[in-house]
Amino acid sequence: MTATSPTGVRGIRRRVAVSGTQELVSVSHRWHSVISVVAPTAPSVDLVHWVGTNRSRVEALLGERGAVLFRGFPVSDAEDFHAVVKSWSPELLNYTYGSTPRSRADVAGVYTSTEYPADQTIPQHNEMAYARIWPTHLWFYCHRAAVAGGATPLADSRRVAARLDRSLLDEFARRGVRYVRNYGTGFDLSWQQAFETGDRAEVEALCRAQGIEFTWYGDDQLRTSQICQAVIRHPVTGAELWFNQAHLFHTSALPAEVSAELLDGDPADIPRQVYFGDGEPIEDAVLDEVRAAFDAETVREPWQEGDVLLIDNMLVSHGRDPYEGPRRVLVAMTDEHNGSQNECTGE
């Protein structure tokens, strides 16, 4: 993230940071308590420098609220965004074993947000909660805000869990969730897209490393099955969190006519389905209760161009509102968390 010197040579940018005893930023909180807004007190404040030297302060805000919105800093392109993220963590994570279509940006470790049609809603979810390894932190950058709509709504995973009936929460925590995916059906991602490789050996190695059962069948199709956590404790705060994507992978998330058609056909044609960890089905009504809890806790802050949003991926879920006009939001992921050793993975 850079600022252009008024007397500098055209095309050459330099970084500037305010020094001295002046407080470099102001911090405010939205009424819903999910987002803390950090804004510069002068136009020359360098977000790269500030983030790199104030990690403990940002982590405190994340632990309390779940999300931090950096607004008003001179972040103008993907390279600036990449520099901000790198100041927090030198290693940006790949989107291997992804579940939605997205593209790599021109900068390593930076991706486009999920590439679904503009008129569709992306429901609330914690990134890669369908896996045993996931990013701790998600970074979003608004390069271009939509003309209308297009917010990235958030929901507090602590409050979602608290809204659910205790017996439901306990049952999911005890039994875990099994995700079954069929790649190459023509309805969803190909295995090459999901695993970011065309090499079957690489896919098999990743599956073995992450405890994913796999079967090759047909001409070029792949079926995977994995039992994962449904409820976790936050590794820092200890808070109980709803952390899975059962409500997204289940066929009840699809339009009724599409769900009925898939369920009446060959199970191998269902691109994704979810069960309890023991393989027993999950009733539609149970997941309707989960969706209602997310809906009740969802809040939104409209994007402004140049915004950088950091969220704790365990404490806060995210989604996307429909929108009009061009929209470009980039994403990066950092700080890999391996939940295999301390979260429920089913019976």
From TrEMBL:
It comes from the Bacteria. Its cofactor is Fe(2+). Pfam families: TauD (PF02668). Coiled coil: none annotated. Residues 44-333 form the TauD/TfdA-like domain. Signal peptide: none annotated. Keywords: Antibiotic biosynthesis, Dioxygenase, Iron, Oxidoreductase. The keyword Manganese does not apply. InterPro entries: AlphaKG_dependent_hydroxylases (IPR050411), TauD-like_sf (IPR042098), TauD/TfdA-like (IPR003819). One of its GO terms (molecular function) is dioxygenase activity. Gene3D superfamilies: Clavaminate synthase-like (3.60.130.10). This is TauD/TfdA family dioxygenase. The lineage of its organism: Bacteria, Bacillati, Actinomycetota, Actinomycetes, Kitasatosporales.
